[in-house]
Design goal:
Blueprint (H helix, E strand, L loop, with lengths): L21 H25 L1 H12 L9 E4 L8 E10 L10 H19 L5 H12 L3 E12 L6 H20 L8 H15 L4 H6 L11 H15 L8 H14 L12
């Protein structure tokens, strides 16, 4: 399975080569969503790690809003889950160019269209690139809002879904406890990805062996390698961080790999 993953903004729509009819696709996605919704319910009600993290979020004063977790159609992008919705606030015009009413109205329409695509789970990497460019030009402010998305058609089973939820809840914990800005600060993004990969169990021996990336005999030290590998993939997906993703992960690794908050110790080590 392709393990590339990041914020849901990077999830792509289905390719044009899909031979399914629209009705067949709707029926298929309906079944995927039913299973995914059950995974969320079972996680919230029976998974002790998910329950613990949700209680911690509430205790920290960050009670999740209604619809905090949802199942979506992620198209052909092989991702298990994603975190965060990018809020785009258009700023008042500050230059003579921006004051051109036609240019500003066009820009506002484009921003509205991007928001609509995001609400419909159709936002693309190009949309995020445009948002970042607009922010750099002083036209908008970007802010990451906490939401968890599960890619309903790419969940292997309940365990996979629960690991994905734990991963995204670690992002939510990090967003709650600090002024984390993963859109613009690549060290912040690297750190939260390292922690999420490490504490979720996604780099456990069994999963890595199933994926053919290691053997039981060769696993010593492999967990850290797995965390680095997966964190780099996520950081690369942020246009602000792509070129030096490995450098950012290397810089943040030692401190963030040791950080097990809100757990007293690593939840998957005995």
């Amino acid at each position: 399975m392709d393990e590339s993953k990041a914020f849901p903004f990077f999830l792509s729509s289905p390719s044009d080569g899909n031979t399914q009819t629209e009705q067949e696709r709707k029926e298929e996605q309906k079944k995927y969503k039913e299973s995914c919704d059950k995974y969320i319910l079972s996680g919230l009600n029976r998974n002790v790690t998910i329950e613990f993290l949700m209680e911690k979020l509430i205790g920290m004063g960050c009670e999740p809003p209604k619809g905090f977790m949802k199942c979506i159609d992620c198209g052909d992008k092989k991702a298990g889950a994603g975190f965060g919705v990018v809020e785009e606030t258009v700023l008042p015009p500050s230059t003579s160019v921006d004051k051109d009413s036609i240019s500003m109205e066009k820009f506002k329409r484009e921003a509205k269209d991007r928001k609509k695509r995001q609400c419909q789970n159709e936002a693309t990497l190009q949309d995020l690139q445009k948002q970042i460019k607009a922010q750099n030009e002083g036209k908008v402010n970007l802010r990451l809002l906490p939401e968890i998305f599960l890619c309903q058609q790419h969940l292997v089973n309940e365990d996979h879904a629960h690991q994905s939820i734990v991963h995204e809840l670690i992002h939510a914990i990090d967003l709650c406890r600090s002024k984390m800005d993963p859109i613009n600060n690549c060290i912040h993004m690297a750190c939260t990805e390292i922690r999420a990969e490490n504490l979720s169990g996604e780099c456990g021996a069994v999963r890595e062996m199933i994926n053919g990336r290691t053997s039981l005999q060769g696993f010593r030290g492999h967990g850290a390698e797995c965390v680095k590998r997966r964190a780099v993939l996520s950081v690369e997906a942020n246009p602000n961080c792509t070129e030096k993703a490995k450098d950012y992960v290397d810089a943040a690794f030692e401190r963030c790999f040791k950080d097990t908050f809100p757990f007293d110790r690593h939840p998957n080590l005995r």
